[in-house]
Amino acid sequence: MSSIQFRTPGSPIKSGDVTEFEQRFGISLPEDYRQFLLLTNGGYQPTPETFKIEEEGETFLKELFSLNGKTFTSLEKQTVQMKSDLPAGVIPIGMDGLGNTICLQVSGKDRGQICFWNHEQEIPSPGESARLLFVARSFQQFLDSLYPDPYKPKLDEIEWIGKLGKTRDLLDFLAKGNDIEATNKYGRTILKEATRYGNIELIELAIAHGAITTGAIHLAAMNRQMNAIDFLLNHGADINERNAEGKTPLSVVWDTEFANALKTKGATK
């Protein structure tokens, strides 16, 4: 798979979950997309995110659907809801920032191809199929074709390491004489940036190097990073820690489903 990373990745699934989905809809998923679901299971706000569309220029990927929909948009629900909009043998697998659909051909001579459905196009007459625009010959080619938005502000070093960095990146940062509690212009440390983006590898390493966890759980809650919250709780964080404004993590959550999930862990306002 490519180096795509998500601000909010999907929750883990098993091979049987994918097989059950295929059987339910009577389809066979291309192997590269099947492996993506097993390894990543979709994600929200990817990096890189920009891609080109035949005849349409470029747009940016907002999310790739999650099979079970526990974290964000459900692949299963979208497949049901869009069945009448898309041609036979085509399923929706993602969405761009304008609400248009990224689709996958799962049968026929173009099986495996990625295409694009502009929801603002003229609605097809009865018996006619929506006009799909070519994006890539395969799902893997689609991932490989993604590139950073040239107009998007570049990340500073601390945010970059927190979001995309690996063990070597943090060790190199510290080896240059930087403190683990160094902050960027937003006042966030590497640990806090890693928490915002759900980078568990960096969260664990930062804590091992003495990073202070105070305030990190609020950032995880605001950004719907349940894996990060679980990791912090397992390392002594308080689910009802109060920030400088006296608010608990539950108080800063805007998503009702995520808030309910926090309550099951003992979160209160």
Describe this structure in words.
The structure is a single chain. The chain is built from eleven helices and eight strands. It is of the alpha+beta class and 269 residues long. Strands 1, 2, 3, 4, 5, 6, 7 and 8 form an eight-stranded antiparallel beta sheet that branches. It starts with a strand and ends in a 6-residue tail after the last helix. The mean pLDDT is 90.
In brief, what are we looking at here?
The chain has eleven helices and eight strands.
Tally of DSSP helical segments = 11
Low-confidence runs of at least 5 consecutive residues:
none
Q: Mean pLDDT across all residues, rounded? A: 90
| Name given to the CATH architecture of the largest domain | 3-Layer(aba) Sandwich
Strand content: 15-25%
Q: What's the number of domains?
A: 2
Structural class label: alpha+beta
Largest sheet: 8 strands, antiparallel
- The counted number of beta strands is 8
Find the CATH superfamily of the largest domain: SMI1/KNR4-like
SSE string? EHHEEEHEEEEHHHHHHHH
Q: Overall 3D geometry?
A: globular
CATH class of the largest domain: Alpha Beta
List the helices and strands and how they pair.
Blueprint (H helix, E strand, L loop, with lengths): L4 E5 L5 H11 L5 H9 L3 E5 L2 E4 L3 E8 L10 H7 L8 E7 L4 E5 L8 E4 L15 E4 L2 H7 L11 H8 L2 H9 L14 H8 L2 H9 L7 H7 L3 H9 L21 H8 L6
Antiparallel strand pairs: 1-2, 2-4, 3-4, 4-5, 5-6, 6-7, 7-8
Helix pairs in contact: 5-7, 7-8, 7-9, 9-10
